[in-house]
Amino acid sequence: MTSYKELSAKIAALMQQAEAQRKAEIAGVVQQIRAQMLEYNLTVDDLGMGSGRKSAAKGSTVAPKYRHPVSGATWSGRGKMPKWLAAEVAAGKDKGVFIIA
């Protein structure tokens, strides 16, 4: 009966062997692809295989909707209400007073 250690050693050796074989085969395939690309005058762009990742879309900036008359601080109306506007509303002022015309 084969022990666990012996089996683990065999697995490790086979994994190394498989990786070496994979690298050798990849080198041959890459060489074939390059030869065909030269033969047909193709570029990487012609293959239509970008990186596979799409760049994250940048968030668009939103024009400010509210402005504090004293400090000039602005708020787009999106997200949590800023402290300056919350304080003014709590003091009894209408939020509409701060809308940028």
TrEMBL record:
SMART domains: HNS. It is found in: Cytoplasm, Nucleoid. GO terms for cellular component: nucleoid. Residues 53-74 are annotated as: Disordered. Transmembrane segments: none annotated. Keywords: Cytoplasm, DNA-binding. InterPro entries: H-NS_C_dom. GO terms for molecular function: DNA binding. Residues 56-100 form the DNA-binding protein H-NS-like C-terminal domain. Belongs to the histone-like protein H-NS family. This is Putative Histone-like nucleoid-structuring protein H-NS. It comes from Thiomonas delicata. The lineage of its organism: Bacteria, Pseudomonadati, Pseudomonadota, Betaproteobacteria, Burkholderiales.
